[in-house]
Automatic annotation (TrEMBL):
The keyword RNA-binding does not apply. Belongs to the MoaB/Mog family. One of its GO terms (biological process) is Mo-molybdopterin cofactor biosynthetic process. It comes from the Bacteria. NCBIfam families: molyb_syn. It holds the Pfam family MoCF_biosynth. InterPro entries: MoaB, MoaB/Mog-like_dom_sf, MoaB/Mog_dom, MoCF_biosynth_CS. This is Molybdenum cofactor biosynthesis protein B. Residues 13-155 form the MoaB/Mog domain. One of its GO terms (cellular component) is cytosol.
Length: 162
C-alpha cells in the first residue's frame, strides 16, 4: 500500500568500508546498487578504508546533501579492531531505528545460526536522511535489502520529508 507522502524514487548513497576490496571487487556494494536501481536512484557511491575519520566525514557530508534521502553502508560492522562502522555512525544519529539490529540478527540466526551474533547492524536518522549500516557480506546485504530496507524505503523517505 502506498501512502500519499511516500517518495516514489528515493535518492540513495552507497558507502562500502573495506581495507581489502577495490571498487571492482566490491560485490556487496554492487549488490546494494543493483537492488536499488530497480525502483530508486543511486546518487553516490564510494569505497573507503575502515577509517573512523573518513567514515565520520562522509556520513556527515552526505546527511547534509539535499540530493540524498538515504545512506546505506556495508562493511565494518563485525567485532574486529578494524570494524568501526557502528561505533562511528551511532553518535551521529539524531534518532535510532530501535530494533533494526536486533531483528536483523534474529532473522540472520534463522539462516546462519550462532554466527549471526558476530555482526552488528544499525539504522537511524541524521537530519532528514535515513542511515542503514549493514555487514559486508553479499548474503547479508541482499537479505537486509530485501527483507527490511526496500519494503520501507519509500515510506521512510516520505516520513522524513514531513
Amino acid at each position: 500500500m502506498h501512502h500519499t507522502h511516500d517518495v516514489p524514487v528515493v535518492k540513495v548513497a552507497v558507502l562500502t568500508l573495506s581495507d581489502s576490496r577495490s571498487e571492482a571487487e566490491d560485490k556487496s556494494g554492487q549488490t546494494i546498487q543493483s537492488l536499488l536501481e530497480e525502483h530508486h536512484q543511486v546518487v553516490r557511491y564510494k569505497l573507503i578504508a575502515d577509517d573512523a575519520d573518513k567514515l565520520h566525514e562522509t556520513v556527515t557530508e552526505w546527511a547534509q546533501a539535499v540530493d540524498i534521502d538515504a545512506i546505506i553502508t556495508n562493511g565494518g560492522t563485525g567485532l574486529s579492531k578494524r570494524d568501526i562502522t557502528v561505533q562511528t555512525v551511532y553518535p551521529l544519529l539524531d534518532k535510532e531505528m530501535k530494533g533494526f539490529g536486533e531483528l536483523f540478527r534474529v532473522k540472520s540466526y534463522e539462516q546462519i545460526g550462532a554466527k549471526a551474533l558476530l555482526s552488528n547492524a544499525l539504522a537511524g536518522v541524521r537530519e532528514n536522511t535515513a542511515i542503514f549500516c549493514l555487514p559486508g557480506s553479499k548474503n547479508a546485504v541482499t537479505f537486509a535489502m530485501e527483507a527490511f530496507i526496500l519494503p520501507i524505503l519509500s515510506h521512510l523517505a516520505g516520513e522524513l520529508r514531513k
